[in-house]
Structures are given as structure tokens and as C-alpha cells.
Design a protein that fits this description.
alpha/beta, about 280 residues, TIM Barrel, two-stranded antiparallel sheet, globular
Length: about 280
């Protein structure tokens, strides 16, 4: 089994690159070695990548012992992102999600320990921006749980969120807006937290690494800019950036959707470009 991928780090923040989930039958062969037992797929994936976004938490609760096992099966510097439960985000009034949010953090996710990364609270594509309700939802997201600092991102998939007020509200709460790359969803590239969370969705079957080399170079350059506290010059922000120099940011970049079979190859190609 190949050696583990390291999170890329220079004078800036760490850059972590990964995929969504690790259980996908068509990856057996292209990504997982022939004959690898299914129970060892996370072990293998976590040594090729530096992060994975767990999607199963969106659909239902996982067992505390599952989180503990995933923690133990992965390298010391590996980090998981989690999808927040749909019961919290797929609702008419976001401000009423408090019980679902609390239940999520009491479900065993803290068993990940230091490997618990940001939680992506993905809103429905039909959910429109309503300033008061949106702000009330962000206020429900806890800053700490079990003595551990927590990080949050929101995936805003309705065009109405491309609004300076939505950016300002998110920034006030220190929550990251997920950057939707190569996607049908609106792209909001404004950094609103001390970290950046990007999901790129443009892989195709036409290229062995999912993207043409120039596109991989572009995403690697954007990740470096974010990590250095800069803004990529080729991405448009919705609101003016805050005054003053930004500090280094940790970057989480996931290759999601698109032609899913190619996603691990695209992630590994990015890690190679970033010196991981």
C-alpha cells in the first residue's frame, strides 16, 4: 500500500485535498487495488489523500463506534469534514433547526477527536436567502462542543445568496461559504472564515485525471492563494473584502460529483501539484 499523502503546508495555511466518501464500487480497480478487502478501503484512501468529506452524516446518524473506528484507521494528520444532517437544513424555517444541530453533535461525531474538521451545512437548491432566518440559523451553530473548537461551512445553492448581505452575515459568524467550482450552483468566492472550503465538480470521463492539466494547475494556484491569505485573481467576489491583511488560511478542497470515477485521480493530481 502506498505511503500516506500529507497536507500541503508552506508559509501559509495547510491545504487538504480529498473526495466525498470512500465507499464506491467503481473505484475498485481505478483507485483501490484489486483484491483489497472492502474493510481496508478507508485505510487506503486516507493514505493517498489528506481529507475526506463524510456524506453519510447528511442522511442519518452514524454510530459513535464508527467515528472512533474511522479515527483509528487513518493517519495522525488526516482530517474528516462532515456533512451536517439534512434534518437541520432541509426545512422551511432554518431558525427552528436548533434541536437537530444539538442532536448531531451529541451523536458521536466528537469521537473523531483531532480529526474532526469543518461541518458543511448544505442548504437545498430551492432555499432562498432570507436575512433574518439565515442569521438565526448561523447563530445556532456551536462554537465549541466537548471542549473542542468547531468549524462550520454553509453550502448556499440558490442564486439569491449571491448578495453582499448574505456574505456579511456569514462573515460576522465566522462561517465559511462553500466555494462551488465548475458547478451549476452559484459561485460565491468570498472568504468569510479563517479557512476556505471548496467543492469542485467538473471532472469528466475524457481525461485520466478528471480535468485537463491546465484546470488542475488553476485549482492548485487558487488553493495556494487562499492558504496565503490572498484572493485568487480569477474568481469574482460578491462583496468587497474586509480591510486589513488576512492571515494564513487552512484550505479544504474536495473533488465531488462530476464523473465520480475520476475524482480520486483528480484529487491525487492536485496533491502532487501542491507538493504533498
Amino acid at each position: 500500500m502506498a505511503g500516506k499523502a500529507k497536507a500541503t503546508k508552506g508559509k501559509a495555511g495547510q491545504i487538504r485535498v480529498g473526495i466525498g466518501g470512500w465507499t464506491y464500487a467503481p473505484w475498485r480497480g481505478p483507485f483501490y487495488p484489486e483484491g483489497l478487502p472492502h474493510r481496508r478501503e478507508l485505510e487506503h484512501a486516507s493514505r493517498q489523500l489528506s481529507s475526506i468529506e463524510i456524506n453519510g452524516t447528511f442522511y442519518g446518524s452514524q454510530k459513535p463506534e464508527s467515528f472512533a473506528r474511522w479515527r483509528e484507521e487513518t493517519p495522525d494528520d488526516f482530517v474528516f469534514a462532515l456533512k451536517g444532517p439534512r434534518f437541520a437544513t432541509n426545512r422551511r424555517v432554518l431558525a427552528e433547526a436548533g434541536e437537530s444541530v444539538q442532536r448531531f453533535y451529541g451523536s458521536g461525531v466528537l469521537e473523531l477527536g483531532d480529526k474532526l474538521g469543518p461541518v458543511n451545512w448544505q442548504l437545498a437548491p430551492t432555499k432562498q436567502f432570507q436575512a433574518e432566518d439565515f442569521a438565526a440559523f448561523l447563530a445556532l451553530l456551536p462554537k465549541k462542543a466537548g471542549g473542542r473548537a468547531l468549524r462550520h461551512a454553509v453550502e448556499l445553492r440558490h442564486p439569491s445568496f449571491r448578495h453582499p448581505e448574505a456574505v456579511a452575515i456569514t462573515r460576522r459568524h465566522g462561517v465559511a461559504i462553500v466555494v462551488a467550482g465548475d458547478s451549476e450552483y452559484p459561485q460565491i468566492a468570498d472568504p468569510t472564515a479563517p479557512f476556505v472550503y471548496a467543492r469542485i465538480m467538473g471532472t469528466t470521463a475524457d481525461h485520466e485525471a478528471g480535468y485537463v492539466p491546465a484546470a488542475l494547475d488553476t485549482w492548485a494556484a487558487r488553493a495556494r492563494a487562499w492558504a496565503a491569505g490572498e484572493l485568487p485573481g480569477d474568481l469574482e467576489c460578491v462583496a468587497p473584502p474586509p480591510k486589513g491583511a488576512a492571515g494564513p488560511r487552512e484550505v479544504f478542497l474536495y473533488v465531488i460529483s462530476g464523473h465520480k470515477v475520476r475524482n480520486p485521480a483528480a484529487a491525487m493530481a492536485l496533491i502532487a501539484r501542491l507538493g504533498g
